[in-house]
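Review form for a predicted model. The reviewer records the input and the model, then writes brief findings.
Reviewer: anonymous (R2)
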Amino acid sequence: MAATKKHVAILGGGVCGLYAARVLTRVGIPVTVLEKGSLPGGLATSHERSGNWYDLGCHMLHEFDKEVYEDIMSLMGDDSIPVQLDAKIRWAGSFYRYPLQFQDMIKGIPIFTLAFYTLGLFYAQIRQALVPWHPKNAEEALIQLYGTPLYKFFFKDFTHRYWGIHPRELSATFITTKMPRLSAVDVIKKTLGKVGVKDKSLKAVDSALHEETLHYSRTGAEAMPRALAKAVMEAGGKVILNADVQQVQMTDGRVTAVTYQQGGETHVVECDECISTIPLPWLVQKADPVPDASVVEASHQLRFKPISIYGLLVKKQKCIDGLYIYYRDRFFHRVGEPKNAGLVVKPEGHTVLIVETTCEIGDAKWLGTDEAKERLFTDLELENICAREDVVEVNILHGETGYPIFSLGFEPHYEQVIQWVKSVSNLQSTGRQGGFKYPNMHSAMRMGATAAQVVLKRLQHS
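Model under review:
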């Protein structure tokens, strides 16, 4: 295969695209990765501000995929810092381990209230066992999984606030691909199963393990994609930053070239295969010739939830107890303190907070208005994280396409776009944005490796 000098264009230099390039360059396939940002990594990187690194979210590598994990460790070497998972959730007036454990649930809810929720869950399981039904939306899916009382208490308002969309307007598919399972509820379901009440409902996503080793770096999340990009280039591949894809040119049902802009100049990359990890709607809209109007319209129905990350430099040695904490009723939904995982922060006696929010492009959170910052500081003080006078810097980072939105009825639009992608014989679209999915970092890299293997098979037969 090393003698086959066919060229592969990879659109997007996040961890998925970079790992696809890693797999291909290891066997001698020429690759060009086009990344719109100024750093490799996409959403899974960090940005330097005034000498400190701020992650675009809480990104650490798991060990679940042994092949990917060992490969990344070989690239990072001493840059990797192992750290034990220490996540919490602010719930029922206290802090509990995340994912929520059964014993925490018992401690967090009065006994009569707990009995009420358990009866609701019991009723939901009995109903599904006797009269199976298919939920029409996320609200019905959550009720099927957890019962009406738990849905109203734990999921309804948080889901609506987080997404800006009522659960009735989200697809039931969202629950099976994004919503983590409550291990506390799983214990109850297993108990019901022992008395003959089998769980035949939808399955939510398996939660992260309560005890596991994660891997981080002294400069934050940026170290891993930087190591990947370096390995790709050392193996002869190209990783071009600040490269904004303009057109994906096609001839006779095949991608033949990709046009991109960099520094005001237009460049063309000819290719024999193309792996796209840019947002799926963007791929459709950059295609030349333009796909059928129905495909273009379907792509416009696939939307993403933007995110605004407030990176704070705080004049405190430490702000939170743990790596990150989830919140259900605050301006933010998660606060991380990467210094607790080994991030080096300057000057001494300071720390960095990664405060994650969902938003809309152009709204107060996105712009970081005085009103938004006031709400941020107020909630940080109410949670005893830090006082506003402790905050030395506020750095706002954006993710225009942070999370795919599985709105009600999105599936046929998604399927129509995917069928168009499949109709192009040398094109793949994968990763979080390109696949319109919810992988974590190691899963995204596995998706990149899978796409690379498809390319290798195609080139063998070309």
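Findings: Residues 303-404 form a domain with the Polyamine Oxidase; Chain A, domain 2 fold (CATH 3.90.660.20).
Further findings: The mean pLDDT is 89.
Recommendation: see findings above.
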